[in-house]
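Example record

The entry below shows one chain as it appears in the dataset: sequence first, then C-alpha cells.
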Amino acid sequence: MNLLTKSLAVVSAVFLLTACETAPSSTSGANGKGGAAGAGGPVSPGTQEDLAQNVGDRVFFDTDSSQLSSESQGVLQRQAAWLKQYGNVHVTVEGHCDERGTREFNLALGERRAAAAKKYLVGLGIPSSRISTISYGKERPAVIGSDESAWSQNRRAVTVVANQ
C-alpha cells in the first residue's frame, strides 16, 4: 500500500505541475488567425489575414434577415476599397446562420446573406467575376452556444480570399 500511495502522490504532483503551466496568451481576431494589426508581426498585404485584421472580413445580420445594416455596409465599403487596392484578389462570400431553423431554411437564408453582401460589393464597383458565394447554413458556427450571444455571431457573411 505504501508504494501505491507514493505512486499516486507522484502522479498527482505531475498533474498539478501540468495544470499550473501557463498557456501563451492569444489575441485571435474574429477568424482565429491573429489579432489586431501588428499583434503577431506584420501581415502580408492582400491576404486573408490582412483583410481580417485591417478591414474586417465579416458582417452580421438580424434574425431571419439578409438585410445589410449601416454597420455592415460600412464594413463592405472598406472591403470594396481593399479589393480595389488588390485587383488580383478573388473572394468567396460565405453565408452563415444560427442553429435555429431547418437545414433547408438556413441554407437558403445563408445564400441570401452571401448574395446581399456580393450585390453590395458589386454596386461599389467590384467586378462580379471576382466574387463567388456559398451558403453553409448552420453547418459552420463561429461560436457554439444556444443563446442570443452565440446566435448573433453566427448570423453572418464572411469574405474569404479565394486565391492564396
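Notes for this example: The longest helix spans residues 103-123. The beta strands are 58-60, 91-96, 131-137, 156-161.
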